[in-house]
Here is the input.
Amino acid sequence: MMKRVLILGGTGDAAELAAKTSKIPEVEVITSLAGRTQNPLLPAGMLRIGGFGGEKGLSQYLADAHIDVLIDATHPFAAQISFYAAAAALDCKIPHLMLMRPAWQRLPLDKWIEVDSLEAAATILPEFGKRVLLTVGRQQLASFASLKNIWFLMRLIDPPPRDAFIPPGTILCSRGPFSLENERKLLIEHQIDTIVSKNSGGNAAYAKIIAARELGLKVVMVKRPPTPPTETVSDVESAIVWLLNKLHS
Here is the structure.
């Protein structure tokens, strides 16, 4: 019998996991995307776009779609769906895994100011930031919109809506991964003195952290939110090993 694996996606790791899972015999993979990105990179296998309607909606989908295994490979800051996934998998009594890439670690030359939230980042930023590279996603721009004495270079995948409440500055639409050479050039050309970033982990966006370290720039680093107490791996290969064990047990 075919086994159905649902991957909650939206990350490069999720796309890689879907590609490798789709090659496993007698396995059908479905990737679910939240739909926040206008032109997402399409993963291998089947695709579902949109929300579930909370924990109960996800539980209903798992039952209706006859999902055998659930893997949460969402962004580390997509905390709500991760808690929904853990609860729904428990409710449906199916195996559940979180694929969570390791957070970036501060090195001796890093000038990090670690905060617990975007709101906290916006509160302390006027103390030292004058020209800021803001890389927190278009849905979080409003947290910084009231800071009128700071110029922001807002790097986004998609532009914000025309009526969005955004801070003063310039919007740069670009999709990673970003090279160290380009990040260094970007920071110098725009005379950036501070970066605001979520601690997403992974390699795709880490070059800006290296460039900031080399140039002696401050980084306001937003810590990750809590995650549900569930089985977790840090890379795609480990997720595949876990999945094969569950499929064969």
